[in-house]
Amino acid sequence: MKRWTKSMVSAVIGASVFASIPLSAFAATAALPSAKFAPVALEERAQKDMKYYSASEFSALADKDAILAGFAASLVIPSDLQVLKVIGEEQLTAFVQDGDTLWIGTKSGVTRMDFSEADTRDYVQYLSGPRYLYNGDDVVTGLYSDGSNGVWIQNAKGVVHLAMENKTLKEKADIQEDIMKTVNDRNGMIPDQYYSIVNGQYVGKPRTNDNDGLWTAAYAIGEIFRYQTALREGNEQERAEAKAAATRATKAVLLLNQISGRADGFPTRSYIVKGEEQRSGLWFEVKEAGAGGYALAVKSREAVGDKGAENFQITDPDLILEAKQAYETMTGRTYDADWGTKNYYGPDWIYPVVFDTTVSGPRNVGYLEPGVAWRLKSDINEDLDPMLAALYRDMGISDTDIIYKADTSADEVLAHFSLFYYADRYLFDGSSGEDAHLKELTVQFADRMMNHILTNDFRIVDAHGNSTTWSKWFASYFLKDDPENPGEFAYGYEDGPLNAIEIMSFLKTTMYLTKGKADYSEHYAQYEQAYNNLWNYSYDGTENGKGYIHFAKEHLQRRLDIVPRDYMEFDDYSSDPARIEDIVARQDVTLSVNYSDEHLFTISFMPLIELELEEDPGSSRVKDLREILDQWWVNMSRELNPLYTFVYQFSNQDNTDVDLESAVWMMYRSPQIRIELPVMNSTRKDVLHLDDFSARDEEELLLNRVLPPDENKVYKYNKNPFVADENVSDGVYGGVNYNDGYMSNSTAFTLPYWMGRYYGMIEGE
Question: Among 251, 619, 679, 726, which is most exposed with the fewest C-beta within 10 angstroms?
Answer without folding.
Answer: 619
